[in-house]
Amino acid sequence: MDSITGTFFTFFFNSSFLLADFPFWGISGAAIFVIILLLGSALVSGSEVAFFSLSPNDIDDLKQENSKTSNRIIKLKEMPRTLLATILISNNFINIGIVVLSDFVLKKVIPSEVFTSWAIQIGAAEYLSFLPFIDPSNTEIAWLVENLIKVVGVVFLLVLFGEVAPKVYANLNNVKLAKMMSGSLNVLNRFFSPGSKILVNWTNYIEGKLESKAQKASLMSKEDIDEAIELTVRNDDNAEEEVDILKSILKFGDVTVKQIMRSRVDVVAIEFRTAFREVLKVARRAGVSRIPIFDDDFDNITGILYIKDLVGHTDEGDDFEWQALIRTDLLYVPESKKISDLLKEFQQQKLHMAMVVDEYGGSSGIATLEDVLEEVIGEIKDEFDDLSEIDFTKKSEYVYIFEGKTLLNDMCRVMDLETTTFDEAKGDADTIAGLMLELFGQIPKINAESSYNQYQFKIVSVNKRRVKQVQIILPKKM
Q: What DSSP assignment string belongs to 159-193?
């Protein structure tokens, strides 16, 4: 056998030489210590599943419990990557200890002569003679058989008792095991803190690099598809509409609910205690098929009133308890939700309207199925839409006046601009009023002017709270 290869395998498999010179290591003591380490491996492996399978309801229960143990669990959960690094480091150290001690125990219990005898009996030399680093002698073959048995045996112990069984148990008793291991993991977390920080920092660095490359690849692919759409769509009367629809489909997965929702100031809603005759008046004026119902404040939506449910009760008096018609199957979504995901929820729950909530839990507005579909196919006008109501005025080919509440996406469509035209200037804004606040840095005064990339903006109407109307002058085509 090659000397370097032989030295490597001897060092890797015969790790028990580290313990051979210590007479106090008895076979019984080492075996007991292996069992203890196996138990430790089981608890640490199980705690990984226990901690990372805690549901939001479990966390809420722990917060309400407000005990020392529950608070410790919550604190550990606040740094999931550090906790995972600690668990992995601890588990690896324990497994190394199991491998070293198991090798020592097997050497003492089963002498090398036994393995030589087994090698001769099974004729192992004939089956393993093809290996270039194996001398076809019984001694070398016995050495390989011995270490193969050790590896298989130790792997079996580690997988069954150190991984599979504890993780199955932890999945069924996650809270119980998390409480049991919280103290030990807290100590290990502090002990392995330097190593955990290095692992977490390297992980964050690598993840950042991978995400950056993925985003660049995604952007490049979208630009390529945009060019392909421009090149392949037929040059006929409907080509422009086809291009817009195809590009909207391409960007569909990147649009958030906040970009398409109707803000709370523009939502027609009814207070829960409103008299029935007034409800009918609001329903007639609104021209919508569904109206949110709130109790005292719009942040407290209690349900939705379907206008079709009122049809059979139009002759009722003010004492009619119309509240019984309210439907309480509400869908709440965050502003940051992608509209592609919202469309799936609408389909699954068979709903047409969702309440949009901000990061503080307050109601930002509503998003409807119609709003989602319009993002792809453009404005939908139905029998309830008031065609005479317009949110903008076209004064000339290059001059428009828009309501401040108009969405930037809608403004761009009206003026036949790319919806990304003002992305660099808008910040987190979704409306023209928000864009003005970004450009001016404050609520501007009437007739105040600003510009961005040859687009001229002038404040037409404003009050102390918001920008109401804005005039936009487009750059003249060359």
A: HIIIIIHHHHHHHHSHHHHHHHHHHHHHHHHHHTH
Predicted confidence at residue 458, as pLDDT, reads 92
Amino acid identity of 252?
F
pLDDT lower than 50: segments of the chain: 1-24, 124-125, 130, 133, 136, 383-389, 478
Among 171, 184, 170, CA closest to 72:
184
Give me the CATH topology for the region 392-473: 3.30.465
Q: Which tens digits make up the pLDDT trace of 98-147?
A: 888 877 777 777 766 666 666 555 554 455 554 554 554 555 666 666 67
Distance, CA of 230 to CA of 239 (rounded, Å) = 9
Nearest to 206 by CA among 216, 194, 214, 195: 214
Residue 4: the pLDDT is 39
Q: What is the DSSP letter of 338?
A: B
Whether 392-473 and 254-377 are alike in CATH topology: the answer is no
**Superfamily (CATH) of domain 254-377:** CBS-domain (3.10.580.10)
> pTM score, two decimals?
0.41
Can you tell me which residue has the tokens 């804004």? 429
CA distance linking residue 367 with residue 444, whole number of Å = 30
pLDDT at 20 (0 to 100): 46
List the chain domain ranges.
3-191, 254-377, 392-473
Beta strands in 244-396 (DSSP E): 262-263, 270-271, 290-295, 297-306, 332-334, 353-357, 363-368, 392-394
Q: Is 22 helix (H, G, I), strand (E, B) or coil?
A: coil
